[in-house]
Amino acid sequence: MKHIGTLLGATALCAASSLSAAELEVTHWWTSGGEAAAVAEFAKAFNATGNKWVDGAIAGGGGTARPIMISRITGGDPMAATQFNHGRQAEELVEAGLMRDLTDIANAEGWADIVHPSSLLDSCTLDGHIYCVPVNIHSWQWLWLSNKAFADAGVAVPTSWDEFVAAAPALEAKGIIPLAMGQQSWQSSGAFNVLMVSLAGADLFLKVYGDHDADVAAGAEVARVFAAADDARKMAANSSVQDWNQATNLVITGKAGGQIMGDWAQGEFQVAGQVAGTDYTCLPGLGVNEIISTGGDAFYFPVLADEEQTAAQGELASLMLKPEVQVNFNLKKGSLPVRGDIDLSAANDCMKKGLEILAAGNVIPDPNQLMSPDSLGQINDLFVEFFNDASITAADAQARFAEIVGNAD
Ligand code: BGC
Question: Is 297 near ligand 1, meaning CB less than 6 Å away?
Fold first, then answer.
């Protein structure tokens, strides 16, 4: 409560002075070409209501953006709306009373009937109250391949992880980096988790991330995943880019063979005018096990003092779930919509595969829904080290991984 008092005092000073409409600053980490095109759809729809979207993009990815967002909110300088991933990233802010309770709007608009899968709304819910709007489903389990790179290397475009590993020497012989990977801390752990689900299956993934089972994490099946991660780090040894979209660009330009990355990569291929199937190939579940995680993005609305801004927050929250906004935003973002009752006939082949896998129910939660941000941060750090330091053996890294998993909350 103390937090709220401080917050109300601070924001009262900068209450919006407009008469009929409000300006809302919206923070997010969508700064790549595809991401910027997608977020512009939200801004356009919100501006059409007569309110004004003040874009608060924070560069550097979620790992950089989230601490900034959190410290602004806890420090009494909240934005009007902000992105977080589905899951536990905003848990402490909600518990501290800093986030607006959206339950009335959610009930009035029947979000519980609209949002699918229901785990997305569960991730917004604390003690029966709803604190966020899920806007998309993003899955991690994709291998994006450059058709040009494989043509240049004289080998067929792989259809599975093993074929991709086998093609690496042919790519290298032509000066092509087999696996593009950037240095942002979440990229290597993300790739490892994709290897885990794809090669060892959903049950094992859930034992590790859901049950925090250290014995399973230390066991033979996860050792096999670490061996694959060792292949991956060798294939990525010459990939010296930083941001995930720079790595995607290596694939787009045929300088790299492939990238393990979430389906947000699709937005980049789209902005570059590339066509799925012709210019690039996508393999869900690395061509081994077609399963997708139902992570993604949700918007939270910090408690504000100003009435007009508060009213406009409600308008933005409800607009983000409107069918046409869901279609326009998700087609650009490369994500799947959170409602199943809308027309996605314009989706490309990769997105259609994602929709089929979702419809078949081959889904797992995202680690952000299963582990605290602290524990996931430790896992990120471990994989940054593992991918950058060849002297760390797979066995050493696995032992450290199992310890983090056993202590995770
Ligand atoms: C978000 C995506 C975003 C990606 C890369 C993920 O955490 O869910 O929306 O495109 O980060 O910035």
Answer: yes
Residue ranges per structural domain of the chain: 21-137+295-359, 142-293+371-406
Q: Are 176 and 149 in contact (CB under 8 A)?
A: yes
Crossing angle of the two packed helices 185-200 and 220-235, in degrees rounded to 10: 130
Element (H, E) at 178: strand 177-179
CA distance 237 to 289: 26
Q: Work out the number of other CB atoms within 10 angstroms of the CB of residue 108.
A: 10
83 CA from centroid of ligand 1 (Å): 10
Please work out whether the CB of residue 29 comes within 6 Å of at least one atom of ligand 1: yes
Ligand 1 contacts CB of residue 186 (under 6 A): no
Residue-wise pLDDT for 246-283, tens only, equals 999 999 999 999 999 999 999 999 999 999 999 999 99
Q: What pLDDT, in 10s, does the model give residues 296-322?
A: 999 999 999 999 999 999 999 999 999
Nearest CA to ligand 1 atom 10: 264
pLDDT score recorded for residue 20: 55
Fold that domain 21-137+295-359 belongs to in CATH: D-Maltodextrin-Binding Protein; domain 2 (3.40.190)
Q: How many CB atoms lie within 10 A of CB 128?
A: 6
The pTM score is: 0.93
334 Cα nearest atom in ligand 1: 10
Q: Distance, CA 26 to ligand 1 centroid (Å)?
A: 16
Cβ-based neighbours of 378, under 8 Å, separated by 6 or more: 404
| Pocket perturbation via mutation, ligand 1, pick of 264, 269, 336 by most ligand atoms within 8 A of CB | 264
